[in-house]
Amino acid sequence: MTDDQKDKLEPLLQEKLQAYKDFLTATLLLQEALEKEEMPQVTRLLAERDILAGKVDRLDQQLSHYEQVITIPLPTADRHRQAKITDVIAEILKSIVAANDACDSQAANRCAEMKHELLMMRQKEAGLHGYGAQPQRLPVFLNVKT
Question: Following DSSP, what letter does each residue of 46-69 receive, concatenated?
Answer without folding.
Answer: HHHHHHHHHHHHHHHHHHHHHHHH
